[in-house]
Amino acid sequence: MTKQEKTKAETASRRSASQWAVAWRRFKRNRAGVAGLIMVSALVFIAIFHNLLALYPARPDPKAFTPFYKGDTAKPPSANYPFGTSAIGTDVFSDVIHGSVYAIYVGVLVTVITMGLAIVVGAIAGYFGKWVDNILMRITEIFLVFPSLLLILVFVRIFSISAGGGSWQFLGITVPPGLTIVIFILGVFNWASNARMVRGEFLRVREMEFVQAEKALGASNWRIIFRHVLPNILSSIIVVATLTIAYAILLEAAVSFLGFGDPNTITWGQILQENFSEMRTVWWAEFFPGLAILFSVFGFNLLGDGLSDALNPRLRE
Amino acid sequence: MSLIRYIARRLLYMVPLLLGISIISFITMYAAGDPITIITMGKPTITEAQRQAIRIYYGLDKPVPVQYLNWLVNILKGDFGKSFTYGGQPVRLLIEQWFWPTVELQLISILLAVALSIPIGIMSAKNQYSKRDITVTSIALFGVSMPTFWLGVILIIAFSYNLGWLPSAGAVGAPYLWPLFGIENPTLDHLAHLILPVTVLTYVSLAQNVRLVRANMLEVLRSDYILAARASGLSERLVIYKHALRNSITPVITYLGLSLGAVVGGAPMTEYVFNWPGLGRRFVDAAMNLDFPLIMGITMIITIMTLVANLIVDISYAFIDPRIRVE
């Protein structure tokens, strides 16, 4: 590497670092955003150390039903059971703690699938334009018009009936195949509005002078897309991805709550479902898992809004 | 004249969209395998002759493309086929029965939400970063993060079970469910059943709407024409309510259009929690039973309503903003 190239690389890295540093400085001033970051960090912390924090092991371990064997089914919150015990005789506190692993797993995986599809479709449509754009946007519209929650339910039901495959471990929790099916279906039905966003950003950046200059220099399409346009819309993608995590957690909870989840996957929505018919007697088993959902979703939403303000300062005074 | 041509073009443009959606909903039925195995699930003793009779009853004996075309033609005639459950009743009858409770619940909530969101959103945007604005935005974000069904559950526990003020489920009830005033008036009883679900739905869509109105108002208030209006000495009230409001509520109209379509879909979660006798609640059951004629029928109805609502929104845009027609 010549000296000149070296300095060039250095300035480039320094410049991009400072751009993010500016955003970070702006983000730190935003109290709501910082609160969101703290809430999300707390969630991640709980998920990583769930085995140490919970009082009883996660289901399917039979020890999870210790309160049941002790005759402590449907007991209100007390020193022994901080969140009470459920209608089927598990410790709600432990269930909620273990549930955080699923929440992270669902939120991140659904977002990876959603954003992956959205970026591919949005980039191709926005960059190539013309008939490609036309066809892809018509398909996107079909997915937007579809009543997605309803179709998600139908597909989850269809595929969970014929569910096979193995389960695996994530952060020490068994992930049954049923949950992965739900995740894929949620991802497949949620990319449309994000794809529109990516397309819009591509249209905006595509017309910028530096892209035109790069084209004039004979750069390949792939180089322009990956080296020039994508890095420029990264901030929008990060914001939307954060909000998508929140939405995914909420949607999965709804699917499980309505009774379409895998009964072996004790997500927060599943706990709500298990105790729904008994809510009159075990209100604590409905209250705390829902609070956990609200806490996580609120955290990710606050973080997303904070990031949006920090990365897109146009609306700031 | 150009407006009529615009509408005609938009109508034509809906045709491929509808066809695409109808094909996808029809294929869904075969994604689960042979529908006959679903209908006869849990009846292992059924004979082959009985299976054949069921196939003929539902028209499943014909080749799949023919089935699709028949289904499509019948829909145009207003016949949505027969349900796999509910004793094979016509889907159309079932939908008609569940349609109005859902529309009632949704319309009240959406209108309330829109009516409240505009003044709140404007107030919030006008005083950006003030204490009031921060309170409003936090409550709104809280609402967006709220699991709808959980809010319903908590309200039921608090207001029905603990306080005993309001009924917990259904659209009409035995009077003893509502002992607070001891009035046996069917209208009052129905209103009492509406309060909790309407509260849940209104809060959630109010939260979304307020965020929309506020964000757009902020954007509009920064534009040059507002600066010009202010510079020419117009009062703040006139600037905001006459000049800024018009441009800042277009996204609310879009949202309204989308949610009017969703009116029919209902809020399945809210209807489920409150056991509301509407389409959303029944769709959850239909999905659970894989009752495909019903699923397809409800999906098509929702889609058509959404498209019609979008069309109305587009046309009203064309009225508000003539630039759109040119494009």
Secondary-structure map with pairings?
The complex is a heterodimer of chains A (317) and B (327).
Chain A lengths: L2 H27 L1 H18 L1 H4 L12 H4 L22 H37 L1 H16 L2 H14 L6 E3 L2 E3 L1 H12 L2 H16 L2 H8 L4 H37 L10 H9 L6 H29 L6
Antiparallel strand pairs in A: 1-2
Helix pairs in contact in A: 1-13, 2-5, 2-13, 5-6, 5-8, 5-9, 5-11, 5-13, 6-9, 7-8, 8-11, 9-11, 11-12, 11-13, 12-13
Chain B lengths: L1 H30 L3 H5 L8 H11 L5 H13 L14 H36 L4 H15 L2 H15 L23 H36 L2 H8 L4 H13 L1 H16 L2 H6 L5 H11 L2 H29 L2 H4 L1
Helix pairs in contact in B: 1-14, 5-6, 5-8, 5-11, 5-14, 6-8, 7-8, 8-10, 11-14, 13-14
Give a verbal description of the structure.
- By secondary structure, chain A is mostly helical.
- Chain A is built from 13 helices and 2 strands, in the order αααααααββαααααα.
- In chain A, strand 1 and strand 2 form a beta hairpin.
- Chain A starts with a helix and ends in a 6-residue tail after the last helix.
- The mean pLDDT of chain A is 84.
- By secondary structure, chain B is mainly alpha-helical.
- The longest helix of chain B has 36 residues.
- The two termini of chain B are 15 Å apart.
- Chains A and B meet through helix 6, helix 7, helix 11 and helix 13 of A and helix 1, helix 6, helix 7, helix 8 and helix 11 of B.
Task: Strand order, main sheet of chain A: write it out.
Answer: 1-2
Number of helices of chain B: 15
Instruction: Characterize the overall form of chain B.
Output: globular
Distance between the termini of chain B: 15 Å
In DSSP terms (H or I, runs of 4 or more residues), the helix count of chain A works out at: 13
The major pleated sheet of chain A works out as: 2 strands, antiparallel
Straight-line N-to-C gap of chain A: 44 Å
β content of chain A, as a range?
under 5%
SSE order of chain A, as H and E?
A: HHHHHHHEEHHHHHH
Question: pLDDT under 50 segments of chain B (min length 5)?
Answer: none
